[in-house]
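wait is this the right file?? whatever heres the structure
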């Protein structure tokens, strides 16, 4: 049997940072590998601008491949790129879950398997979400501020809580929500999630109950925001929703700042009875004079949750696992189907 040929189209930085020698060697056990450097501009949420010359180059590169992997720097994978190719699989390594570098209907029309491993950063995000919850429950942000400002330390049991056994809420039950649920298991917490789009049988399989947004907001001593930014989630948490958070709630946001109405959040925090631990904020980068920096009941990190050393290599490692499954005739696990995309965009499954 001839060995499949797998090509990677992306910028040099991805090639250097995302591909470990170990994973490349794992791939080369069953496939030949080719790399073509592309330098198209790349945003996490925006498609590469149309560039017929780059698309032609990509079509030429793809012509002799069985699988094409793309990442930052690659041009858009259009019908032109696919026409005349023998491609059986296209894989997106990293994006913002929305296949912005791929014309999805064109790929489907050509009956090519479409995968993405963009959830490679979810493990790091779930870890940091857990850390933020622990920091919030100890009011550790405020305690640290006082220490480094040479103010008298706040000690004692006041505002110093454990996570074990507490009610916890998840807004969004995607990859991050599910990984976080696994990390929370040893704490014996009681988890309620709001996610109207996820497959109905998934949450119970993780021991998580689903409920409507008001119920979920009022349930947790810790409320995690884990939804992507879509037209349906922009400012999902405004003044009425933030008012539903009980006094002493720790609110953790590790997904996207604009899911929360910033003015309403500042207003709610100024009441001083909840704590916010935020990895993301709207706008980003956070303005140096943003009033949120001065609030004692806030702990901040600069959008670092998923950008770990390990997550860079997870994307390609997961993809090699998928390629091995695919080329040995088994089922892949990271398929980018209509149902998966509908879930991410927050549309009902049909
Ligand atoms: P995912 O695509 O696996 O899951 C998203 C979930 O949100 C889905 O289950 C979907 O049904 C649900 N959802 C969509 N619209 C909703 C709505 N209106 N209300 C409730 N639920 C809704 O994504 P994921 O891997 O869990 O990641 C979630 C988001 O986290 C990403 O889209 C990204 O914006 C963000 N993220 C942040 C970092 C970081 O460094 N802080 C890193 C990676 C991802």
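ok assuming it is, sequence goes like this
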């Amino acid at each position: 049997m001839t060995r499949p040929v797998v090509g990677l189209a992306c910028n040099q930085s991805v090639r250097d940072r995302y591909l470990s020698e170990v994973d490349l060697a794992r791939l080369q056990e069953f496939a030949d590998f080719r790399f073509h450097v592309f330098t198209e501009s790349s945003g996490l949420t925006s498609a590469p601008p149309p560039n017929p010359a780059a698309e032609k180059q990509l079509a030429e590169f793809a012509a002799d491949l069985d699988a094409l992997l793309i990442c930052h720097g690659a041009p858009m994978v259009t019908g032109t790129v696919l026409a005349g190719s023998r491609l059986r699989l296209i894989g997106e390594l990293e994006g913002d879950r929305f296949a912005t570098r791929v014309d999805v209907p064109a790929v489907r029309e050509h009956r090519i398997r479409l995968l993405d491993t963009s959830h490679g950063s979810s493990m790091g995000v779930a870890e940091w979400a857990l850390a933020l919850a622990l920091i919030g429950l100890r009011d550790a942000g405020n305690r640290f501020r006082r220490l480094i400002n040479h103010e008298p330390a706040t000690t004692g049991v006041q505002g110093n809580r454990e996570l074990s056994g507490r009610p916890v809420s998840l807004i969004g039950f995607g990859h991050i929500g599910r990984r976080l649920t696994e990390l929370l298991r040893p704490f014996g917490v009681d988890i309620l999630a709001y996610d109207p789009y996820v497959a109905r049988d998934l949450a119970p399989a993780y021991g998580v109950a689903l409920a409507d947004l008001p119920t979920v907001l009022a349930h947790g001593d810790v409320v995690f925001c884990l939804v992507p930014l879509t037209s349906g989630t922009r400012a999902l948490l405004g003044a009425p929703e933030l008012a539903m958070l009980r006094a002493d709630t720790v609110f953790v946001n590790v997904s996207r700042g604009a899911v929360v109405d910033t003015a309403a959040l500042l207003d709610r925090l100024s009441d001083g009875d909840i704590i916010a631990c935020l990895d993301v904020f709207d706008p980003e980068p956070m303005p140096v004079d943003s009033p949120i920096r001065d609030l004692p009941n806030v702990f901040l990190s600069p959008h670092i949750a998923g950008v770990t050393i390990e997550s860079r290599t997870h994307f390609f490692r997961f993809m090699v696992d998928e390629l091995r499954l695919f080329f040995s005739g088994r089922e892949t696990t990271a398929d980018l189907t209509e149902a998966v995309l509908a879930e991410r965009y927050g549309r009902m499954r049909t």
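DSSP finds 14 helices and twelve strands in the chain. so i think its the right one actually
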